Amino acid sequence: MKSMLMMVLVSVLSIDGVGRAQSICPNQKATQVPARVQDYGPYRRCGLGVTVFGQTFGLAGKRCPKLRLITPAHQECRGAVNPGTLCIYEIQLSVRRQTCGCDFTSMIGTTGLDLVAGDCECRDDGNAGTVEDAMTATCQ
User: Fold this and answer.
1) How far apart are CA 86 and CA 73, in angstroms?
2) Which of 23, 30, 100, 130 has its CA 20 to 30 A from that of 42?
3) Would you list the domain boundaries of the chain?
4) Spatial distance between the Cα atoms of 62 and 117, rounded to a whole number of angstroms
5) What is the pLDDT of residues 53-103, one digit of tens each?
6) What would the 3-class secondary structure string for the chain be?
C-alpha cells in the first residue's frame, strides 16, 4: 500500500507547471536489518537438576526462556542516501513465536529422588506478527 502511494506521489510530482516531465527522486535506499532472537519470561536452568517426588529443579546449565521471538533479517526504509534510487516496501515477513521448556532425562535415581540431565527445547508456536521488507528501486 505504501509503495503504491509512493509511486502515485512520484508520478504526480514529476510534472512541473508547464507540463514538462521533471525527474524527482528521493535518492534513498533500503537498509539491511539483521535477524534477531529475543527471549522473554522467567528462565529455568536445564543442564543438571534433581527431581524430588515428581517436582524437577534445574540447578546448573544454560538458561531456558519461557518464550522466544524470531524476527527474520529484512530491509527497512531509514533514509539512507543513494543517488538515483528510491526505497519501497515489498512484502510482509512472519515473526515466529516459540515456547521453550526443559526436557529432563533421569540419570541416577531412586523412587522420589532422581539426578537428572536436560536441555532446553523450543517448539514453534505460530506467527507472532509481521515485519515489512523493503527494496531499493531505480528512479525513472
Assistant:
1) 20
2) 130
3) 2-138
4) 12
5) 767 767 777 889 999 999 999 999 999 999 999 999 999 999 999 999 888
6) CHHHHHHHHHHHHCECCCCCECCCCCCEEEEEECCEEEEECCCEECCEEEEECCEEEEEECCEECCEEEEECCEEEEEEEECCCEEEEEEEEEEEEEEEEEEEEEEEEEECCEEEEEEEEEEEEEEEEEEEEEEEEEECC
